[in-house]
């Protein structure tokens, strides 16, 4: 194991909620809950102000509303979170080629491999500078942990939260870990935790004292061995830049060549659904859809299509696979078909919403793909305004939907750079009001190497805002809610 604390773990603070507060000046310092807003929705995250009331990730939104009735409840804007995430990951890659993203808001960085730190002092400097750079580029705070191993770096960033930096001096790891609950260690979930508790082991210190033989007896060879090493703060896992899984794919070989074009189409749809099942099972999403066809004469071809952003939506994968199939001549018959997804990302956060929608529409793979809030809407010709959504009014400029119902929509007109804005109510079908793209959190030159990857990107917003925008802020933008 290395001797210097040069593994960095970054995790953004209350990520989705902080992006919302940065976007919406009237919500800064306030309780904000982001999640599914329908009756079966779940909380994605809550601002630290809302956590005081006990609201947390994965809690049913209905329960959150009881605990924090005055919080702002907003739908997630994944496009914006992704683009902010790309900015943050870009800053990490300036520190080292070895960056291992764990989710949208979290990554390990091997500072030593990048030459940006070699001892405690240089690591602390790099970590502080990174936090300042993230703040300057995004307006958001992230917490940093520094240690000689991944396990300790992650524990350190948790301790640093919110808006802090903790460095674990090499040699102090075991003393730090000792009093912590066993659940702190990677790989100790509720089941293992319970199992250990029944054996009288609740802290890491007790785990270390139990010794490897006892742990192997309790938990089996692999798990017991790994855990006894972790308990002694021995964690040799390297920071890996590449994901292990580069693609997820499924294929079928047919006993008899398929000639019927319709049947080929149906098979491809089935394979697409199975592929998405695997993708979701691994908590992944991907950008590139690949179709593989082996024809009667064993000639094999692959066709691919890259989407603007990663997806784990069965309808999207099916459509892409069907488009790819259209361009393939299958007249002689096919003996093998395959559908795969590559360009993977682990945007597991969307799963929560997908699951909520899926529960209602169990068995219907198309409905499963419909975002929850949409799936819950009764048949209506009215436009759908969702709390938190970006809008633009012909006269009043940019704002966001604060609430809607009974054919009305309430909009707060403010932008990331404005003062807290004013609220106005319109008819839901007001022709002057239209959905808009999110505005960048930080103005100025477009962020470096942040390639736009899907429709709702701040980088797609014109640098100079329309006149009505600046006008709408004049004088009357002072009332705080
Ligand atoms: P986290 O980093 O776990 O949480 P957080 O950033 O909101 O707060 P903290 O300061 O404690 O790190 O998750 C990052 C984002 O992922 C979070 O903002 C929302 C999303 N998310 C979900 O959608 N569902 C979940 O269950 C969790 C844990 C997170
Ligand atoms: Mg976080
Ligand atoms: Mg995180």
Question: In brief, what are we looking at here?
Answer:
The chain has 481 residues and is of the alpha+beta class. It contains 16 helices and 17 strands. Among the domains are: 176-231, DNA polymerase, domain 1 (Orthogonal Bundle), CATH 1.10.150; 247-345, DNA polymerase, Y-family, little finger domain (Dna Ligase, domain 1, 2-Layer Sandwich); 390-473, no CATH class.
Estimate percent helicity: 25-40%
Strand order, sheet with most strands: 5-6-1-7-8
Summarize model confidence as the mean pLDDT.
84
> What proportion strand?
15-25%
How would the blueprint of this fold be written?
Blueprint: E1 7-12, H1 15-23, E2 32-35, E3 43-46, H2 48-51, H3 61-67, E4 72-74, H4 78-95, E5 99-103, E6 106-110, H5 120-138, E7 142-147, H6 150-160, E8 165-167, H7 173-177, H8 190-198, H9 204-219, H10 221-231, E9 247-258, H11 261-281, E10 285-295, E11 300-311, H12 314-326, E12 334-345, H13 349-360, H14 365-368, H15 372-376, E13 390-393, E14 397-405, E15 408-413, E16 422-427, E17 433-435, H16 467-473
Parallel strand pairs: 2-4, 7-8
Antiparallel strand pairs: 1-6, 1-7, 2-3, 5-6, 9-12, 10-11, 10-12, 13-14, 13-17, 14-15, 15-16
Helix pairs in contact: 4-5, 9-10, 11-12
Bound molecules: thymidine-5'-triphosphate and magnesium ion (MG) (2 copies).
Family: Belongs to the DNA polymerase type-Y family.
Protein name: DNA polymerase IV
Site (Substrate discrimination): 16
Structure characterization notes:
It is built from 16 helices and 17 strands. The protein is an alpha+beta fold and 481 residues long. Among the domains are: 176-231, DNA polymerase, domain 1 (Orthogonal Bundle); 247-345, 2-Layer Sandwich (Dna Ligase, domain 1), CATH 3.30.1490.100; 390-473, no CATH class. The strands form four sheets. The protein has a five-stranded mixed β-sheet. A five-stranded antiparallel β-sheet has the order 16-15-14-13-17. The chain has a four-stranded antiparallel β-sheet with strand order 9-12-10-11, covered by helices on one side. Helix 4 (78-95) runs antiparallel to helix 5 and helix 11 packs antiparallel against helix 12. The chain is globular. The protein binds thymidine-5'-triphosphate (TTP) and magnesium ion (MG) (2 copies). Thymidine-5'-triphosphate is lined by residues 11-16, 44-45, 57-58, 103, 105-106, 161-162, 349, 352.
